[in-house]
From TrEMBL:
<dbReference type="InterPro" id="IPR023214">
    <property type="entry name" value="HAD_sf"/>
</dbReference>
<protein>
    <submittedName>
        <fullName>Marine sediment metagenome DNA, contig: S06H3_S07871</fullName>
    </submittedName>
</protein>
<dbReference type="InterPro" id="IPR036412">
    <property type="entry name" value="HAD-like_sf"/>
</dbReference>
Length: 125
């Protein structure tokens, strides 16, 4: 399997879990791809941060926009994606299983509602 992990709002929400997950996946012969919308100029900082968290990976891929993550999943043959932002999920190929991470940026814990935009959310009636 090829598994992609977002950093901010995903790995950063529980680095200990994602360190364990990434290590287990690699040890089992699977591939771990880090897929981030961070500035590529921060690659050294990003690699150091991931290492400090204990995250192991086969590739670090910088998306040039949030919506670019979808096509990159296709290009890299990603089968599973852990991601917190709807904008990054909408263009992901249908065959990719997406694990959406809930955090303070995409969920209003006071009102118990997801935070999104009309463009990305179709409300049920
Ligand atoms: Mg994120």
């Amino acid at each position: 399997m090829k598994v992609a992990l977002d950093i901010d709002g995903t790995i950063s929400e529980h680095p200990q879990f994602f360190a364990w997950l990434s290590q287990q996946l690699q040890q089992a012969g699977h591939s771990v791809l880090i897929l981030t919308f961070r500035d590529p100029a921060r690659e050294a900082h990003t690699r150091a941060e991931l290492t400090n968290w204990g995250i192991v990976f086969d590739a670090l891929v910088f998306a040039e926009s949030m919506t670019a993550k979808g096509p990159l999943c296709g290009i890299h043959g990603v089968e599973l994606l852990f991601e917190d932002q709807d904008e990054c999920i909408v263009n992901v190929p249908e065959r990719v299983l997406v694990f959406k991470i809930r955090n303070g940026g995409n969920f209003d814990f006071d009102s118990q509602q997801w935070v999104s935009t009309a463009r990305l959310t179709q409300l049920l009636r």
